[in-house]
Amino acid sequence: MTSTLASRGMRRLATPLAALFAALVLAGCATPPPIDLQLDTPAQYKESVKPTSDRAGAPGDLAPAQDSAQWWTVFQDPQLEALVARAADRNTDVQQAAARLAQARALAREVDSARAPQVGLNASAARGAGIDKAQGARPASLFSAGLGASWELDLFGRLAGASRAASLDARSREMLLQSTRLAVQSETAQLYLAVRALDDEARIVRETVDAYRDTLDLTERRQRAGDVGDLDVERVRTELAATESDALAVQRQRAQVEHALAVVLGELPTNFSLDSTAWRTALPKIPAGLPSEMLARRPDVQAAQWRVQAAQERIGVAQAAWFPAIALTADGGYASTDLGELLKWSARSWGVGALFSLPLFDGGRREAGVQSANAEFDGAMAEYRAQVLGAFKDVEDQLSALRLLAQQSRVQAQAVDSARRATRLSDVRYREGAISQIDLLDTRRSELRNSRQALLIKAQQYQATVALVRALGGGWG
């Protein structure tokens, strides 16, 4: 007799255990496989900046501050550092990215809350026939008040997967906020350096204007003495007017860049001005042999990785929609047909239950959901690959630009020196009457052109350095 009862008990226990085992097997089927985010990339970049001196490889010269968030300090410009700090506080792009991050985090908490028991206060009032059988078909009222609770058993990981996906989305937003900050920092630096370059260009043009005025004064004196004609005077006046026009164009361009910088700082261009000072910003040297693994710290690349993992989690969520949903419910409170009797002990009521739900026919909705999740994952993977490829291109572009600009700067410096010597010699010979005015004007134009070209190359070196810092995710230390 005892063995019979024991065997019956085992059979009763085996049925729910088998059902639980089957559920766990199905849940395993809903778990997406791991993904490999490693791409076939070289260990180092093709372009490698060579040290330009024996000391160029010294860590103190090459490495930015230990905190990559302070990369701009390598330029050793206090005014630049102050502007970057102002942009961090007031830039509207950073504020928008921070708001989107806060929204993503709130959404993650909202999605995760579905995994916890839900408790609520409820009250109802109804009137109708047949509510109270003791009264027959006569209309009656029913009042109720109490607490209700429900908890969905996440046997197949649908709720957990949705929570993980939302959390990964929030991490992606956090990386995008960092990417926005880096973009604002680099844009602030580039606009500031552009202003300083325009200040230097304006100085060069003003010096040329002064030189043309001296030449015009000399030519007018020689005209009054009968040594030259009116044509020579008009030629110098033409060159003077054209150079003055160039000076005004440089001022106009500087004003526009200054206004753009004000917007990046989150300030009104009307209230913002940047004094013209000497350009003393240091140009940091770039170490040779930068490892390509540095790209892994780029915030936009990390954001793309989190988006891929979030898309993978959503595949599991979509697959779990094919499995049953089981929820436990409980409620307790008071119910009465007489409002005056509602809160009495005799009107108490309670109930517990379990809900089982499994859609049998939904017109292909669940299948479409799985296909949509797979397509989202494929798109996220393609976006990640594109992000990495674009990051490699950005770094290679700036490394090659810096290498070639360094060579171009050395050659252009020789051209500037030669042009200046030619101008000095031509000016002396013109005053002595040994050469014509056309020769003097040609040498001055050549000096101005070469000086401005050298300044343009210098400005491009600074711009490329900032762009490289941004491409590397905030420095190379």
From TrEMBL:
The record's annotation in SUPFAM superfamilies points to: Outer membrane efflux proteins (OEP)
Task: Tell me what topology the record assigns in the membrane.
Answer: Lipid-anchor
For this UniProt record, give its keywords in alphabetical order, as a comma-separated list: Lipoprotein, Membrane, Palmitate, Signal, Transmembrane, Transmembrane beta strand
Residues spanning the signal sequence: 1-27
* InterPro entries assigned: MdtP/NodT-like (IPR010131), OMP_efflux (IPR003423)
Location(s), subcellular: Cell membrane
- Keyword Zinc set for record: no
Keyword rRNA-binding in annotation: no
Source domain of life is Bacteria
**What does the sequence similarity comment in the record state about its family?**
Belongs to the outer membrane factor (OMF) (TC 1.B.17) family.
Under what name is this protein listed?
Efflux transporter outer membrane subunit
What is the protein's species of origin?
Variovorax dokdonensis
